[in-house]
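Researcher: Structure prediction, please.
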Amino acid sequence: MKAIVITKPGAPEVLQLRKVEEPQVKDDEVLIRVHATALNRADTLQRLGSYSPPPGASPYPGLECSGTIESVGNSVSRWKVGDQVCALLSGGGYAEKVAVPVGQILPIPAGISLKDAAAFPEVACTVWSTVFMMGRLSPGESFLIHGGSSGIGTFAIQMAKHQGVRVFVTAGNEEKLAACKELGADVCINYKTEDFVARVKAETDGKGADVILDCIGAPYLQKNLDSLNFDGRLCIIGLMGGANAEIKLSSLLPKRLTVLGAALRPRSKENKAVVVAEVEKIVWPAIEAGKVKPVIYKYLPLSQAAEAHSLMESSNHIGKILLVT
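Model: Predicted structure follows.
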């Protein structure tokens, strides 16, 4: 089969389509012939050499895919050869075939094409596990999403609105803010021209947000804490702005704040299976009802993975970038 190989750590050009060995399928896995995969920031970090795959995972990038089951392991009962599915991966999506633990496989939601289904597993599992399972975001609460026009952001806006939440977003230009508004965001903040702390406070009668989803890290840490309501929860899922920060611990105590860190890829397959089961039970019906739609910026062939990475790193996109085999 062919796969995108990271020939050495570096710029997007190090991504090369090469002939490689097919993955071996374990008893509790299925082999998927990949139809499409989607980019995630973690893929660019892996390409740079700063985010290695977990032990035993595929060396190739790609944390989600859609496709058709080509073979099943001996202990697999739910799925059969020929089933069309999508899946959460620990790696290997940028390939023609990938072996996946059975607990990380999802059916294609009704009304969604096989190609577009590749846009859902990673964002759905990340947002549901972090914001809802860990962060306990509840109907009637307020929720601030940094990077509202990203793949994670566009999904989180829709899912939160479906759950009856008031949604705030930050983004860097008017086009991105308009896209967030179109998806249902209630308050859209241009972080380049506005102080998001002041705006969130002003829009909540001085209270602040109940939950914040942050991918920036260090430079936003204190600002995020200052933006939270009493009993607020800060969910950190990325460190795009840096990993080291100093905070005033005195800002945590009076408001009973919680800071949560989460990464999906390093979780055990047992842990991922719990998340995937909840996503299928709670998120999939929202997708099938049309309450959450795939937001896809561009489709590119797998052979143009380097171009796709350049596009992601430009941050000019809104929603997901897909690679099609």
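Model: The longest strand covers residues 29-38.
Researcher: Thanks, that helps.
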